[in-house]
Amino acid sequence: MKILFLTQYCPPEVGAPQNRIFELAKQLKKFGHDITILTAMPNYPKGEIFEGYENKKFLKEEIDGIKIVRTSIYATKSKSFTKRLRNYLSFTFSSVISGSKHIDKQDVIITESPPLFLGWSGYVLAKRKKAKFIFNVSDLWPESAVKLGVLNNKLFIKMSTWLEEFCYKKAAAVTGQTQGIVNNIVQRGFDKKKVHLITNGVDTEFFKKENRDELFRKELGIQNKFAIVYAGIHGIAQGLEVVIDSAERLKEYDDIQFIFVGDGPEKQMLIERAESKGLKNVKFLPVQLKPQMPRIIASMDATIIPLKRLDLFKGALPSKMFEALSSELPIVLAVEGEAEKLINSAKAGIVVQPENSQQIADAILKLYNDRELALNLGANGRNYVKEHYSREAIARKLEKILKDITEK
User: Fold this and answer.
1) Is the dihedral of CA 251, 376, 392, 121 positive or negative?
2) Is 46 in contact with 34 (CB distance < 8 Å)?
3) What tens digit of pLDDT does each residue of 62-90 get?
4) How far is CA 400 from CA 1, 87, 223, in A?
5) pTM score, two decimals?
6) What are residue 213's phi and psi, to 5 degrees?
């Protein structure tokens, strides 16, 4: 099959959607399919175009054997709703107007949402290229934006809901990243035969315990410390203030170190919060290139994965969870719902209440005081993820969905 992924996010950017889509693309290529990714000039999460891509309206390149077609985007660091909207809409239109000229006829176009507006682009491109339109939902939008307080305009909410439902109706198949997303779509009356679960996963040969690097730990100054890491977007949804507050509760323990890796709109606030509390047990690292992440994750002793306490996140399965599981890191999970069930089933971590700094601190202390427990939880996690969430198995499931659709 000729398969096009339409997504605003793609390497060399780092992050959950970038990794998931690119790894699926690589697996499908390995299975013998012709894969192209239509995406924007890289700019996430800092909101500025990456070096080497500046002032370009169009670019073709190849990364790891995958054909990449890039079109222009309005990059902004601003948190204002108007500028964020302009950011999304700029690629929505450039992907159709410019991208369409450089894309061959396709069998399938898999469109990533959010941003939701790309659903319109994917539908139009699918019509033009005589392809099946697949709508992949990694976050329910506009519902998530409303519940996080990011979107309040009633007219815009109504228009966004109309577009969301238009995409569900017009898609040959809808894929949801979690069971919660799938259930939400089906319960709203859409054909359950065309709604499929395609979860996050992990390359278990890329993320593994053997990547641990004692020299790297020494460089970070954590060679004799119990290091707990948060690696990912520093955004509103994660509620990372609670991790800073947990660090404050444990500040008397000289050999417990909190490491934040990544960037995002809340990072500066978090740095200032840690500084205002005089915390010496918190360290911030910048965004790292994807090839560095297995070493960084495996060199830690545990990981913390939080989300805000909202019903919206009860269906979430954060991708960073799978990377930690594969690397045999015990997880302190401050998330309710689907992720909680997974960690409990895997016996791979300690689940606590979201936004509860005392419970997070207590869980970290438990792992710190019982290293054998930490090792056992880590080993359980890797066994579980190898059995249930390998990238190859997930890509095979997606491939079957695409074949069934194109053969109709």
Assistant:
1) negative
2) no
3) 998 999 999 999 988 887 778 888 888 99
4) 11, 34, 47
5) 0.79
6) -130, 105
